[in-house]
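Hi, here's the filled form for the chain we discussed.

Project: internal
Contact: R.S.
Residues: 420
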Amino acid sequence: MIRLLQKIVDVRAEEVRALFLGFIYFFLILSSYYVIRPIRDDFGVAGGVENLPLMFTATLLVMLIANALFSSLVARFSRRRFIPIAYRFLIANLLIFFVLLLVISKAHQVWLGRAFFVWTSVFNLFVVSVFWAFMVDVFNTDQGKRLFGFISVGGTLGAIVGAALTATLVRKVGTLYLLLIAAVLLELGAQCVRRFPTPSDTKRPESPVGGSIWAGIAHSFRSPYLLGICAYMLLYSITSTILYFQQVGIAARVFTDRAARTAFFAEVDLVVNILTILAQLFITGRLLKWFGVGATLAILPALSVLGFISIGIAPALTLLVVFLTLRRAGNFAFARPARETLFTVISREDKYKAKNAIDTVVYRTGDQIGAWLDPISRWLGLGFTGFSFVAAPLAAVWLFVSLWLGKKQVTMASEVPGDA
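And the returned structure, exactly as it came back:
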C-alpha cells in the first residue's frame, strides 16, 4: 500500500499515518463547511445584495472577537485541548441556529439569516485556519512541500461530498437538518486532533504556547515576512470579494426560487472541486517540489491579471464564469498549499496566533475593502468592465509579492535546523 501511495505522493513510511489522519481531518471539516456554504449564500441573497457590505463589516468585527478568544485558548491550553474546545464552541453555535430556525417562522427569519451569513463567514475561515496551523506545526518545510498537496485532496474531497450532500438533500429534508450533519462532521474532525501521531510529539511537550491574546496581530506588523503574507492575503481577498459580488448578483437575477439558487451554488462548488482534486493529485506536489513555493504562489495572481484584463477587453457572462471557476480551483490546488508552506518557518506561537490573525482578520479586512469598493464603483459608473482594469494592477502587485515571499521563505527555511 505504501508503494502504491508513493506513486502519487512522495511520502515516507513513518509519515503515512500522520498523512492519512491529516487527509481525513481536512475532509471532515471541509465537508462540514460545504454542507452549510450554499445555505449561507442563499441567506446572503435573501437578505438583500445591497446589504452585503454591511454584513461584511459585521463579519470583520465578529472575526476580531473570535481571534482574541482563540488566542486566549492558545495561551492557556495545549494544542490537543484548545483545538477541540474551539470546534465544540462552533458546534454549540450550530445547534443554537438549528433551534432558532426551528421555532422562528420563515417570514421572520431575515435578521436570523443575516446573522447566519456573518457567523458562517467567520466559521469557514476559522476552522480551516486552525487546521492548517496544526499542520504547519507538526510538519516541517520539506514535509509541507511533499505532503500538503495530498492533504489538500482530503479537503477537496470533503468539499465535493459536502456540496453534493446539500444539493441532494436540501429538497428532501430541508435546510434545517443539514446543520446537524455539519455539526457531526465537525466533531469527528475534532477527534482527529486527539489521535494525531506526529514526529514532533517526541520533541515538543504538549504545553500551552503562552503569550498575549494580541500577539498574533502585533507580530504580524513587526515582521517584514509576516507583513508580506498579510499583503498577499489582503490582495487575494479584495479581488475575490469583487468577483463574489458579481456571482451573487448574477444568481439573484437568474434564479427566483431559493431552493434552485441554493442548488446552483452547490453545483458551482462541485465543478470547482472536481477541477481542484485533479490538479492536487497530479500537479501540486510536483510544482512545489520542482519549482518551489514562490513560483507556485505566483500562479493565482498571474491568472488573475490575465482574467481581469480579458474581462475588461471583452466582457461576457461565460468568460466571467470560466474565470471564477479557474481562479477558485487554482486557489485550492496551488495557492493554498504553497501559502501554508510559508508558515512552516515561523515560531510556534506565530503559527497559531499570527497565522490565525492573517487567515481571519486580514482576510476579512480585504473582504471589507472589496465589499465597499463594489458600491463605490457603481456610484462612479465604472461597471464591471471598468472595475476590471482597476483590479488588474492590484493583481500585478500581488504577483510581485508572491515572488518575494517565495525567495524569503527559502532563506528562512535554510536557517531552521533540519527544515531546509
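Let me know if anything looks off before we file it.
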